Amino acid sequence: MNAAAIIVRAPAGVVVAVLCLFPLLFSDFVTSTIGVRSLFLGIAAASITYLVLHAGMISFSQTALYGIAGFTMANLAAASGGIEHIRILGLDLGESWGPWQAAGAGVAVATVIGVAFGFVCRASYGIYFLMLTLALAVLTFYFFGQVPQLSGFGGIGNVPRPHLIGNPVTDPTPLYYVALAGAVGIYALFRSLVQTPFGLTLQGIRDDPIRMRSLGFRVELHRTLAFGLGAFAAAIAGILSVWYSGQVSPGSIDVIRTIDVFAIAVVGGLGRIEGAWLGAFAFTTLDYAVKRWVGDALGSALDGVTRFETWFGIIFLAILLVSPGGLVGLVQSLGRRIHVRVRRQRQMPDDLTGPAPRAIEERRQRTDEG
Q1: Which residues sit opposite 92 in a β-bridge?
Q2: First-to-last CA distance in the chain?
Q3: Structural domain tally of the chain?
Q4: Integer Cα distance of 289 and 283 in angstroms
Q5: Is 4 inside a domain boundary?
Q6: How far apart are CA 109 and CA 97, in angstroms?
Q7: Degrees, nearest 5: CA angle 272-276-278
Q8: Is residue 324 part of a domain?
Q9: Sign of the CA dihedral 96, 102, 105, 111?
Q10: Is residue 207 predicted with pLDDT exceeding 60?
Q11: For a designed S-S bond to 102, which of 76, 120, 212, 360 qualifies (C-beta 3.0 to 4.6 A apart)?
Q12: 3-state secondary structure (DSSP) of residue 90
């Protein structure tokens, strides 16, 4: 491996090392507020990025699916404010389920509903697809808010967590590593699907659905399955979110939260799956910094707690103006510049004092830029 490749890839190694050692490098508060939240919000944003990048579908339903998984788990685990006795279609399911069983059921239910959402939206494209998913998200919000047997606007509290996770307030390390494992699993799943027949077909449908249909591919079926795959990832994020906070309410899936998760994906960059976690890290770090320091520095008019969405909007616009590709676009641009500079230095003659070496270097520079 040459020096240029080492320099370009070294930051990735540093990132992996920091992720593995995060609870040892930072306090419990930072691990909980930034580390854990970045991981599960990144999973939710990755479900959006995957649909946009590989299927050409811009969805606002991911936060609703995220919430469906959380509400299902909380009700099955008999948390405070949930259903007291579980009976579905006349089948008695008992008083309560264990945390792991309830979590698995939450993921399954959200994935099935995600497939149903995808079926509803399968033939829509562009702004019509976006508006349908937004309507489904709003419908989900009001459903849980107006059905007190399942939640009500007061939400469900005291959701039991697995013993492995314990209490994230006093010790967030176990939940951090569970969330990290979930993030790695979702990332590996999305990356592994890219070159599969399903993934390649999905990309063809993204680029030209009419031509793919004329070639005999079942376009609507592939779009529906892709949406279900995104729902699965969003459901994992929803389970981790409820374990993190110990509660779930319609307020956690309202329009503001929906826009937040979508903005995280856009800020990180929709060109690569990794951008979802980069955007989530930026969001949680900004949340931590603004709420801790901005109010004291600038006064109550720009208080970081009540004005956080304003601050995030300003940063959001600044990032997109500087780099339309988001943060991942900035990282890629920086990596290319470093690679070009290192290669140029390795090829540069020791003596550039004469006119001929200078002409050679100028020609190489024009070639690199071209």
Answers
A1: 87
A2: 25
A3: 1
A4: 10
A5: no
A6: 15
A7: 100
A8: no
A9: positive
A10: yes
A11: 76
A12: coil
